[in-house]
Amino acid sequence: MDDLLEQTWDVVIVGGGNAALCAAIEAAEAGRSVLMLECAPKPYRGGNSRHTRNFRCMHSGPLSVLTDTYGEDEYFDDLMRVTAGKTDEGLARMAIRHSESCLPWMEQHGVRFQPSLSGTLSLSRTNAFFLGGGKALVNAYYNTAADLGVQVIYEAHVTHIAIEGHQCTGLDVTITGQSHRISARTVILASGGFQGDVDWLARAWGPAARNFLIRGTPYNRGVVLADMLDQGAQSVGDPTQCHAVAIDGRAPKFDGGIVTRLDCVPFSVVVNRDAQRFYDEGEDVWPKRYAIWGRLVAAQPDQVAYSIIDAKSLKLFMPSVFPPEQADTIEELGEKMGLNGDALRETVDQFNAACRDGDFHPTELDGVATEGIEPPKTNWARPIDTPPFYGYSLRPGVTFTYLGLKVDAGARVQTPDGPLDNVWAAGEIMAGSILGQGYLAGFGMTIGTVFGRIAGQEAASHAQ
After folding, report:
1. Residue limits of the FAD-dependent oxidoreductase 2 FAD-binding domain (predicted)?
2. Domain containing 141: what range?
3. Angle at Cα 450 formed by Cα 318 and Cα 103, nearest 5°?
4. Whole-prediction pTM
5. What is the mean pLDDT of residues 399-408?
6. Deepest in the core among 110, 148, 157, 293, taking most CB within 10 A?
C-alpha cells in the first residue's frame, strides 16, 4: 500500500464505476501508470453501474445483438423529447455518434451482450443488454484493468482535490482512518452525483426528499463534486433535477438497484393516497417515459402512489422482485393497500367508462385512448375489469443527481477562467451537461462510456 501512495501516478481516477473503468483501460492501454480510488468496499465496487442492464447505442445496421437501424437524428429526437430540449446539443450528438464505436470496444474488453429480455422487446433496436447485468460488466472491466496493470485502492475516500491556478497538484484521501496526499500528473473525476447525501437532497428538494428511496449506491455522496464547486469549477445542471423513477414502495432505503423498478405503469391506472389519478399513464413507451414518474410521485401527498392492474396485464411487463398485492375486487385491493376502497372503485369505474375499443399493442404506441376524462390515458387504455386485481405501491427512487461539473468535448473540467490543465470528468459527475431533465433508458451508460474513454485518452496524452 505505501508504494502505491508514495509514487507519482500518470493518471489518478476518482471513482470505480463504468466511466472510471473505461478511462482507466484507455489510459493503461496508452502505457500510462493508473491508480483508481474507489470509496466503496470491494464487494460494492462499481457505483451505480452495478445496477445497470443495458447501453443505448446508435447503429447504421444490425450490430451485435441490436436489430435494424437506430440513427443519430432519431436518437437525438428521443433525447430531446425526454429532456424537453434541455441539453447541450453538441455534447449530446457527440455522445450519440461515439456510441456506435463503443459497443465493439466494450466487447473487446470483456463485456458480453444478450438479446432483449421478455418485457423489453421494444428496446431490441436501441439498447444492447449486458449478459449478467451491470455487475458482470463491472467485473469484466476490473479484470481487464488488472491485466493492464491498473492499481485499485478500495475504501479510499477522496476529500480534496488540491487546485492551484489551473493545475491539480495532488489529492487528499483517507484510507482506514489515515490521511494521505497522492501525487498525480493528471486526474479524472468519475465519482458520481450526490444522491447518497440525503441532507443535500433535502436542501435541493425540500423536506419531502427525506421520504425518497435511493435506489443507487449510497457511496456517491458528492464530496468531490462539492469540493470542486467550492474551488470555482463551473457547475452544470439543476440541483433539483435527477434520474428518479417510480420504484416499489417496499424497496430498501439505499442500493435497491434496478430490480426495485416497476414497469407496470403503462398498463395500469396510477392513483395517489386519495385514490385519484393525476397523470397520463400511457403518454409514451416506457423506456422513454419511465423516468418522469419519480418526480410525479414525489409531487403527491406523502410522496407515494399506487399502480392498479388486472389479470389481463400481469404478464405484459418485467416481473417485480416483490409480489403485488392481490384481491378479487377493487374495493378489497384498495383496503389492502391502505386506500379508501370505495374511492378507488369510483376512480376505476370512471376510467373504465372512458375507455374505447381499439387494437391493443403492448410494445408500441397503439392510440388506444380514453375519452372525456382528465387526465386522459393516450395509449394502452383498457378497462381494469378482469379479476384478480393487483396493486403496487410506488415511491420516488433516486438513481443519480444532475448537478455536476461543466466539461468540454474533451471532457476537461471548466472554470470561469478557462479549462483546468490536468483535470477531466466523466460519468454522472458531468452528465448534467447533457441531461437537463428527464432520462432515456440506457443513456447514462452511453455518457459514462463515451466520456470515460475520452477522458482516459486525453489524460494519457497529457501525462506523456
Report:
1. 10-436
2. 2-211+222-227+402-463
3. 60
4. 0.90
5. 95
6. 293
The CA distance from 218 to 44, in Å, is 10
Q: How many CA atoms lie within 13 A of 192 on its CB side?
A: 30
Helices (H), 207-340: 223-230, 286-289, 292-298, 330-336
Phi and psi at residue 255, to the nearest 5°: 65, 25
User: In 10 A of CB 190, how many CB atoms?
Assistant: 32
Nearest CA to 229 out of 160, 298, 175, 140 is that of: 160
What span, in angstroms and rounded, lies between the C-alpha atoms of 215 and 252? 8
Burial 428-456 (b: 16+ CB within 10 A, else e): bbbbbbbbbbbbbbbbbbbbbbbbbbbbb
Direct distance between the N- and C-terminal alpha carbons of the chain, in angstroms, rounded to an integer? 25
Which stretches of 8-156 are DSSP H helices?
18-29, 72-83, 89-108, 133-147
Are 257 and 51 in contact by the 8 Å Cβ rule? The answer is yes
CATH number, residue 428: 3.50.50.60
10 plus 156 within the same structural domain? yes
Using 50, 70 and 90 to split pLDDT, how confident is the model at 241? confident
What confidence tier does 439 reach under pLDDT thresholds 50, 70, 90?
A: confident
Going by C-alpha positions, the residue among 131, 230, 123, 242 that lies closest to residue 192 is 242
CB atoms near residue 62 (< 10 Å): 11
Q: What is d(CA 357, CA 366) in angstroms, rounded to the nearest whole number? A: 11
Q: Is residue 240 part of a domain?
A: no
pLDDT exceeds 90 at position 372: yes
348 pLDDT higher than 90? yes
Q: Within 13 A of 215's CA, how many CA atoms are on the CB side?
A: 27
Neighbours of 58 (CB within 10 A): 26
Helix, strand, or coil (residue 399): strand
CA–CA gap between residue 133 and residue 112 (Å, rounded): 9
Q: Which residues contact 274 (CB under 8 A, 6 or more apart)?
A: 301, 340, 343
Crossing angle for the helix pair 443-463 and 18-29, to the nearest 10 degrees: 30
Paired sense of beta strands 305-310 and 389-401, if any: antiparallel
Instruction: Give 48's DSSP letter.
Output: G
> What pLDDT is stored for residue 118 in this prediction?
61
- Cell numbers 427512487: residue: 397
**CATH number for the domain harbouring residue 362:** 3.90.700.10
Same domain, residue pair 152 and 284: no
